[in-house]
Amino acid sequence: MSATCLRTWLSERATACPWTFCLVFSVGVFTVARFLLKTSLVLAQTFVLPGKNLKKFGATKGAWAVITGASDGIGKEFALQLAAAGFNTLLVARNEAALNSVAAEIGMSSKTAGKVEARIQLVDFAKNDPSALNALKSVVSGLDVGILVNNVGKSHTMPSYFVETAEQEIEDIVTINVNATLRVTHAVLPGMIQRNTNEGAECRKRGLILNIGSFAGQVASPMLSTYSGTKAFLTTFTSALAEEVRSHNIIVQNLNTYFVATKMSKIKKSSMLVPTAATYVRSALSKVGLSCGAALTDRPGTTTPFWSHALVDYVIHLVGWKSLFISQSHKIMKDKRRRALRKLEREAKQQ
């Protein structure tokens, strides 16, 4: 249809049904405008706009960052990079040797040696031990905590259907992914709020809580149903808590994470869609306060900071046909399970 024919056709429709034409035209304009606004915002936040400066949360001013699951992977990288940014770090996990190694690395690094302090706190979150959690609460109550990173997490040993998943594995995933986040946040948050409500010259309005989420919490992941459910919990919990503490100028964000090359993901090689833990954490800390790929998707408090993850997240919510992505995820998990079982068979034969 030529431009002249199109103008003629539109003119005829407008003359025949003026009110209907105006309504349809207005809806069309609104839809296109919203698409352009969302696309522009996603691209700007992901590739152009910087997040909040970490000095806002006490970097180089004696503030502490508390990181759970800090012995390896993403948690270790948060510890190293926050220390390099000028935070004292409290490293929390169950592996004493691994935590001491991370603390020693912070102590010997040319960027952090003699500038910040690194302490460790042993907690086995799978045990949900009240005494260990109370000890952690006692420790953090005496620290000026500017940042909390709820990183500790557990996934399934391998993809499996819920009815075939061991009860202990289900319990461990829920205890670590949900209860640990709640208990640690409940231990740290009162101090953040109290310091922000104190009057006088030393009053510093700041605080940041980062909950490490997953795409599995945004689009249900069959054969990882328990893990997927706990990450969906984090999304909702973060949205609610973020609103509760907004008046205290405390930021709470759910980091919507796709695959990262770590032991937990069992992916060794990085790629465009699978960054290293160091690259991922660098992106997350550079985009604090922004939504990136999660912008305007009715998920307040959620951010997808790594650029390729952000674009995938944007496409998923732009298409909006979640059942399609759930079905595709199911196929991927079935393939992962087949490969995991074959690996176990090979290892059994070698013994």
Describe how the helices and strands are arranged.
Layout (H helix, E strand, L loop, with lengths): L2 H14 L1 H30 L16 E5 L4 H12 L3 E6 L2 H13 L9 E5 L7 H12 L3 E6 L16 H31 L10 E5 L12 H20 L6 E5 L21 H10 L15 E2 L3 H13 L2 H29 L1
Parallel strand pairs: 1-2, 1-4, 2-3, 4-5, 5-6, 6-7
Could you write a compact summary of the structure shown?
With 351 residues, this protein is of the alpha/beta class.
Question: Can you describe what's shown?
Answer:
By secondary structure, the chain is an alpha/beta fold. The chain has one domain: 3-Layer(aba) Sandwich (Rossmann fold), CATH 3.40.50.720. Strands 3-2-1-4-5-6-7 form a seven-stranded parallel sheet, with helices on both faces. The mean pLDDT is 91.
CATH fold category name: Rossmann fold
Q: Count the E strands.
A: 7
The major beta sheet can be summarized as:
7 strands, parallel
C-alpha geometry: globular
Order of helices and strands: HHEHEHEHEHEHEHEHH
- Specify the CATH architecture: 3-Layer(aba) Sandwich
Structural class: alpha/beta
Unreliable residue runs: none
| Spatial ordering of strands, largest sheet | 3-2-1-4-5-6-7
Q: How confident overall, as mean pLDDT?
A: 91
The number of helices is 10
Q: Could you tell me how far the N terminus lies from the C terminus, measured between alpha carbons in angstroms?
A: 71 Å
Write down the CATH class. Alpha Beta
Counted up, domains total 1
